[in-house]
Design goal:
Layout lengths: L2 H22 L5 H6 L4 H6 L1 H24 L2 H21 L3 H19 L1
């Protein structure tokens, strides 16, 4: 894998670690409330669901980091495609900006992994 592909792969992994922190630990805090445009009341009632969602983002990050460490194109492609699908579904079902924050970086990394 090229240096550019590895760098983009790690950036996507770090984004998902950041999502994990936001959803698991900061969901009801000011940064989490602002990021997800949530009210304190709604954040409190959805806290457990958000933590579960954060855990899944952690699994995506772990797979991406494994691909980066081992240089496995197959793992990179699989986990990047998972991120693209999750980002596309999030853009469709929740907010279109999710595409730009989640799916687009994964698509760029996927292009780099496949082409370089």
């Amino acid at each position: 894998m090229s240096t550019v592909a590895l760098l983009l792969l790690v950036v996507v992994a770090l984004l998902h670690l950041y999502f994990l922190v936001l959803e698991m630990f900061l969901w009801t805090k000011p940064l989490g409330l602002k990021t997800f445009r949530n009210t304190p009341e709604r954040a409190e009632t959805t806290r457990v669901l958000a933590a579960n969602q954060g855990l899944y983002n952690g699994f995506l990050a772990a797979g991406l980091l494994y691909a980066a460490v081992t240089g496995s194109r197959e793992f990179a492609v699989f986990f990047l495609l998972c991120v693209v699908v999750a980002g596309a579904y999030g853009a469709y079902s929740v907010n279109k900006r999710i595409f730009f924050v989640q799916a687009l970086p994964a698509l760029l990394a996927l292009a780099a992994v496949c082409c370089f």
